[in-house]
Amino acid sequence: MAQAQDDERAAAILSRRAAGLLALDEALAELADANCTMTIAAVIAERLRLQAQTVLTALEADSDEPISVMCRAAGFSLNGFSALLRMRRRSNIGTKGASDAMAFFSGISRAVAERMLQQIAPRKPERRTFKTFRR
């Protein structure tokens, strides 16, 4: 029953986002406040063209660095990332203080995070369509 409620909350948040009523960072914060981990993983994975399981692994890792890199590369602000950190800390995930994680997040640019991401997470291949030509 709890999973169904979480799914409904996540769907409502994403629906408001799709309707233009929530900015991306606000949606991330609301999803984090609702502990919608699977949906957060899916949202980040879609933005970065990663497998959702890869993002979920980073969300559940002891170190904050992988998810910090992913969130920065995905273009989230410090406010959105801070909400995600609060969610992780409520679940007792993370080995350092949140201020250390936020300092790391703030200290890397999006371009640097994208380069770091290439080393830590394989990207999904882009879908390409090929046209056949007739003679």
How many domains, in number, for the residues?
1
**Mean pLDDT over the residues:** 88
Whole-angstrom Rg: 16 Å
Uncertain parts: none
Into which percent range does the helicity of residues fall?
55-70%
Q: CA-to-CA gap between the ends?
A: 59 Å
| Biggest sheet descriptor | none
DSSP strand content: under 5%
SSE string, helices as H and strands as E: HHHHHHHH
Describe the structure.
It is a single chain. This protein has 135 residues and is mostly helical. The protein contains eight helices and no strands. The longest helix is centred in the N-terminal third of the chain and has 17 residues, at 2-18. The protein starts with a helix and ends in a 15-residue tail after the last helix. The model has no long low-confidence stretch (mean pLDDT 88).
Short précis:
With 135 residues, the chain is mostly helical.
Spell out the blueprint of helices and strands.
Layout lengths: L1 H17 L5 H10 L3 H12 L3 H9 L4 H9 L4 H13 L7 H10 L2 H11 L15
Q: Notable features of this structure?
A:
8 helices, mainly alpha
